[in-house]
Amino acid sequence: MAVNRIPLDDVPMCRFHLRVTAVTTGGMFIDGYILGMIGIALAVWGPQVGMSALWEGLIGASALAGIFLGALVFGVITDRVGRQTMYTADLMVFVVCSALQFFVAAPWQLAVVRLLMGVAIGADYAIGSALLAEFLPRRQRGPLLASLNAVWTVGYVVAFVVGYLMRGLGDDSWRWMLVSSVVPAVIVLSLRLGTPESPRWLAAHGREEEAQQVLRDTFGPDVVLGEAPTRPPKTPIAELFHPRWRRRTAFASLFWFCQVLPYFALFTFAPDVLKALGLSDEFTGGLTLNLFLLAGGVVGVAVMNRLPRRGFVIWSFVVLALSLGVLGVVPAPSTALVIACFAVFAFVVSGAGNLETVYPSELFPTELRATGIGFAAAMSRVGAAVGTFLLPMSIDHLGTQATMLIGTGVVLAGVVASVAWAPETRHLNLAESCGGEPAAPGFPVPATGDA
C-alpha cells in the first residue's frame, strides 16, 4: 500500500511547533526586555551622576552597535555550523552579561557590557528566525514568525513596567532593573536545551540521512522535506549581493532600517522625549505608549495572514510618516495631540514591526537564510544605533520639531524602498517565497533557489 508522504511545509501543527515557537520567542522576549530597560534605568542613574547627553547616547546605542556585529558575524556562522549550537550559546552570554550589569561603576563599563549583550541579541535575531522558519508549516509561518516580534514587544513593555515599579528601591534601583534580565535568560536557556537541528540546514549541507532522522523523530515516518536543495551551500556575505539576491538584500535591510531608527530613538528615551514635548508626567506617558506598542504587536500577529505583505509594509510607513509629521509641523502641540500622535506611531510601528521577523526569513534560501536575516538585522541596527546616539543631542541642539521631521524623512524613505522592491510572499512555501515570481514590478526572479 502506498504511503502518503507529507512535505514539511504542509505538516499539521503539533506540540513540537508550539514548543520551538515558545522557546524561540522566549529569546526575543529577553532581547526586548534588555533593550527596553535601559531607557528607564538611565532616567534614574543619569541624574545621580550628572551623565551627559553624549554618554546617554553612547550607552543607549552600545547594545544596538553590538547587535550589528552579532547579526552580521553570527548569521554567517549559523549558516556554516548549524542553528542548534548557536541557539543555546547566545543565551549563555545573556545570563553572564545580565549579571555583570549589577557591578558597573562608570558609564563606560555599562557601555562595554551592553555592547557584548548586543552581540548576543544580534546573533539571536539571525539564529531564531532562521531555525523557526525552517520548521514551520506555510499556513502558520507568517503569524508564528510575527509572534517573535510581538513577544519582543512584550519584553520591551514588561521591562518598562518593571523598571517603573522598581524606581522606589533607592539609589541602586537602576542596578536591580538591569540585573533582572538574568531571570528570563536562565529560564529560556534551560528550555532551549535539546532542540533539534534544522532538517533543512542538514539537507542543504549534504546530511540527508540526519535530516530524515530529525523528521522521523519529530514528526513521524511520513513527513519529508519536499523540495530539496539543488545547489551546494554558499554562505559568504558577498553572495547576498549576487544579482539573484541583491534587491532582496536591499529591501530587507532598508525597510527594517527605516522602521527601527525612529522606533529606538524615540522609545529608548521616551521619558525625555515626552518631557521635551511638554508632557508633565513623562513616566506615565511612557507607560501608556508602551501599552500601545503591546496592542500593536498583538494586532500585527492577528492580521499577518490577512493582509498582503507588500501592502502592509507600504501603508504602515505612510501612517508612521503622518504621525511624526504632525508633531514636526505643529508648534507647541497640546498634550492630547502629543499622546495621540505617539500612540498611533507606537501602535502601527509595533504591528508592522512583526514583518521584521517574517519578511527576511521568506526572502532567502536555506544556505543564505541566517546570513540574509543577520545582514538585514545588522543594517537595521546601524539605523537604530545612529538614531539612539543622536536623538538626545538632536533635541538639545535642533529642537523637538526638527527632530520629528528628521524621523518623518526616514519613514518616507521606507515608503520609497517598499514601493520599489517589496515582493509578495504571503501563502507561498519557502521554496516559492525565495525563488518564485515576485509581485513588485522590476523585482528580479532568481534563476534558482531552494528552501
TrEMBL record:
Its main location: membrane. Keywords: Membrane, Transmembrane, Transmembrane helix, Transport. Signal peptide: none annotated. Gene3D superfamilies: MFS general substrate transporter like domains (1.20.1250.20). It is a multi-pass membrane protein. Residues 20-426 form the Major facilitator superfamily (MFS) profile domain. The chain crosses the membrane at residues 20-45, 57-77, 89-109, 115-136, 148-167, 173-191, 250-271, 283-305, 312-330, 336-358, 370-390, 402-422. The keyword Secreted does not apply. Coiled coil: none annotated. It is found in: Cell membrane. This is MFS transporter. It comes from Actinoallomurus oryzae.
